[in-house]
Amino acid sequence: MRAIPTAIPDLLIIEPKVFGDERGFFFESFNQKAFANLIGRSVNFVQDNHSRSVQNVLRGLHYQIKQAQGKLVRVVAGEVLDVAVDIRRSSPTFGRWQGVILSAENKRMLWVPEGFAHGFVVLSEQAEFLYKTTDYWAPEYERSVLWNDADLAIDWHLDGRIPALSKKDQEGVPFAQAELFP
Fold first, then answer.
1. Helix, strand or coil for residue 89?
2. Distance between CA atoms of 64 and 68, rounded to whole angstroms?
3. Residues carrying an active site annotation
């Protein structure tokens, strides 16, 4: 596997080496040692999550203010636009976002380190989204930034469509009012 840098240095696209022929394909989707070498540090993943969503579902922008979670995310069916926002006040890229197309076809993953808000929108008819986290889900520390915050101005590739949102995501707070990392 290899790491592809993004405009935000700590945020990395991970591209596995895929072996394929007329029978199908094989790739190593995770290897602790190789992953640590790619990101420059060792991490311990403690939880795996799997979601399935239909087209135009937007989930995010989520983070945990305590028990912060690093996430390694990928799509195993369909296609999403995955978005991460740097919410570390001390970072030179504070307030910047990066969007990456993740799909079953491209098999790419995105490493979203601790200190980022994260979300995605489903571009295909449906998508199955997998992610590993470096800490456990702690609902008491979960926060949500408003997906369409004017200060962030994220291009969600919706082309005028209205996304389907959970109540929690409809009630996200504006970025300027969000509880952020130092």
1. coil
2. 5
3. 62, 131
